[in-house]
Amino acid sequence: MSTEDSKLTVRAVERALDLLLCFAEDSDLSLTELAARAGLHKSTVHRLLASLEVKGFVRRDPASERYRLGYRMWELSANLVQDDDPAVILLPEMERLRDQLGETVSLYVRDGLERIRVQAVQSSQAIRRVAPVGVRLPLHVGASGKILVAFGAPELQRELSAAPLWADEAQKAAFERQLQEARDCGYATSLEEREAGAAAIAAPIVNRAHRMVAALAVSGPVNRLTAEAMKEDAPLLLEAAARMGKMLKP
Question: Do residues 70 and 52 lie in contact, with contact meaning Cβ atoms separated by under 8 Å?
């Protein structure tokens, strides 16, 4: 295979993966929507989708002409979980914390300048904070984002500070103060920072090698998860995070 052919092949793979990633936010999409999101011509998208459909990675509804992820994705995901996966190992402790505090408990990891919710245990209360697994959220907003930055590598804070995310210098300075507060007390809070009516408190999960693995967060409506309530809940959250850290391999 020539160098040019190799480049074309790699480009096709990248474009196909870009199409699959479009389904991270929506369960079904049309050809037009996929082309717009991936920034590709419809003819190119049509060819790529045909290949993905043959392999079982997407499926097309003949009636609506819309596409969904195929069953082959389920086959792959069945092998995703590993024995040392924090999302699996820590689930019982997350359920225990949910039962103690009565609110939704989530586990976040960092990916670049974003955080991903990799596990969640929903509150059993009628009015609750629903936390879908797999969602990507910004690092610079929210309690768990503060934790991932405050207890992460110093280079991360510098990179985040230089990123074009801030409305002004005052917002950036306020965030940096909140990071220091989180380091001082061991946890961070947020009140309606990202979503109206929602509040959260988060703490770092540090493994036996003293490396932060994830952020453990408790979230709920602001009428229940008030500033006073979060202060009262903090000891239980910190105890849970400490237990979870000891469960993880160095």
Answer: yes
C-alpha to C-alpha distance for 217 and 188, rounded to whole angstroms: 9
- If we measure between CA atoms, which residue out of 19, 15, 18, 11 comes closest to residue 58? 19
Rounded CA gap, 29 and 19, in Å?
10
CATH of domain 3-75: 1.10.10.10
Q: Start-end ranges of CATH 3.30.450.40 in the chain?
A: 86-247
- Provide CB contacts within 8 A for 23, sequence distance 6+: 29, 68, 69
Q: Mention every residue, 6+ apart, whose C-beta is less than 8 A from residue 210.
A: none
Which residue numbers in the chain have pLDDT < 70?
Answer: 1-9, 77-84, 129, 131
SS3 115: strand
| Topology of domain 86-247, CATH | Beta-Lactamase (3.30.450)
Where do we find the tokens 């801030």?
166
Residue 109's beta-bridge partner residues?
116
In the chain, list all ranges with CATH 1.10.10.10: 3-75
pLDDT digits (tens, 9 = 90+) for 158-190: 999 999 989 899 999 999 999 999 999 999 999
Longest dimension (CA), the chain: 66
